[in-house]
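Q: Predict the bound structure with BES.
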Amino acid sequence: MPLHLTTSPAEKADTVLLAFKKDQANEGLIKEYAGLEYMPDLSFAAKEQHILYHPGQKRRIILLGLGEEKDASKLYLFFRSCIHQLKTKGNLVLHVPTSHFTDEVLYNAVIGLRKSLINNGMYRTNGQKTEEPEITVVIDEKQSEIAHEALHVAESQIGAMKLIDTPSNIKNPAYIASYAQASGKAHGFTVKVLDAQKLEELGMKALLAVGQGSDSPPVCIVMEYKPSGSTSQKPALGLVGKGISFDTGGISIKPSANMGFMKSDMSGAAAVIGAIEAAARLQLSIHVVGVVPAAENSVDAKSMRPGDVIGSYSGKTIEVLDTDAEGRLILADGLSYIIKNHKPEHLIDLATLTGSCIATLGNVAAGIFTKNDQMANVLFGLGEKVNERIWRLPMWEDYMTEMQSDIADIKNLSSKPVAGAITAAKFLEFFVEEHQSWAHLDIAGVAFTESEFARTRTSTGFGIRLLLEYMKMLG
Ligand code: BES
Ligand code: ZN
Ligand code: ZN
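A: Predicted complex:
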């Protein structure tokens, strides 16, 4: 394990990280570790950083500013960024004293420090040779529970992030299913994989239609976490995640520039798997079911064509005018399936659904679409807390007129090239029907982004902490 939580570190550190909130530096700690006989004139504003060297002992001391209350939701990023930069300096044996941290700071510190160890070079041939830094978070006994909880959350996020960053020649629908199965086995939730034959029997025709152009058949992954001893029949929460293992656009093919980023078109699926994993790791007292329809949207003689009319699990017919609007097709089946078979009290779907959502909110916030004000408000507040921001867009009936088809019950493309994120949400609503507590999150702009942590876009793990907070609140 590259990150240790301990009350008494065994190894000697070559580096010590001292982090303080603005104007709250602890003189005793600075004196103890840095050997300074006076307080340096630092304010410890957000992300402020200084490196000192102990005058006598061979030890590097990093002073890190944690800023003010308004910076609290981004604390984990300050820690991740600080150690990410330091990693390039070679071997690192780091100690992080935390006895002066509040629970919130400690939680974020553990998450950020664990994430600073992410190694994106998983397919580099010299990847094995690079030295792993050792991070020891030095905690008090009474901080143990919160620190361990944070580490579980970070591990769930990192697993999901790695899955998103995995190339699509490796990550086909079956691979996503194996990931879920392995996670379920390791952490204690059940995983059922409906294979193509089963999907035929069940009539999940929209999911099958999207996957029909690929050599890797579609699957539907059904996960269930129940607290021990629970006799609950109906889950309090149902989650559905878009699991497109690669999106070429199909016959309505995408331009080639940046198409490689479409390996991340299963980020909704990864968020759902990661959130259920986190719930199981933390043994939350909530019954939750997750459904991940997974397929590859490929170009092939067998692919569906623009203009085709397909069926769906709900029995409703769909005119497919654009094969690149495939996410809503597989989600239609995922949503109908979870509602019919599990009847969740609350229902949330997450999907990298539209470029339109990125045009609207950029890489700053996900779109939330719901008629349930309470869900919108609660999720907004939780998103602010964990730096997974969401912003509400309208669901007025006026948008539905553009989705009506002459030949089928609905079409998958709006007649007008405007308000694409909203018309996509209206499409989903047609399959959710009368469910009173459903919210759709369009995470296209926030799941896979540029950052200081890599040369190209990489996964953020968006959604896992948000869903976890929501589950804690329900449970
Ligand atoms: N997976 C894409 C949406 C997307 C785009 C996610 C960019 C992340 C980054 C989705 O399947 C798609 O292609 N949507 C189309 C819908 C359109 C054809 C109605 C889009 O947004 O252009
Ligand atoms: Zn698409
Ligand atoms: Zn897509």
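A: The chain is about 35% helix and 20% strand.
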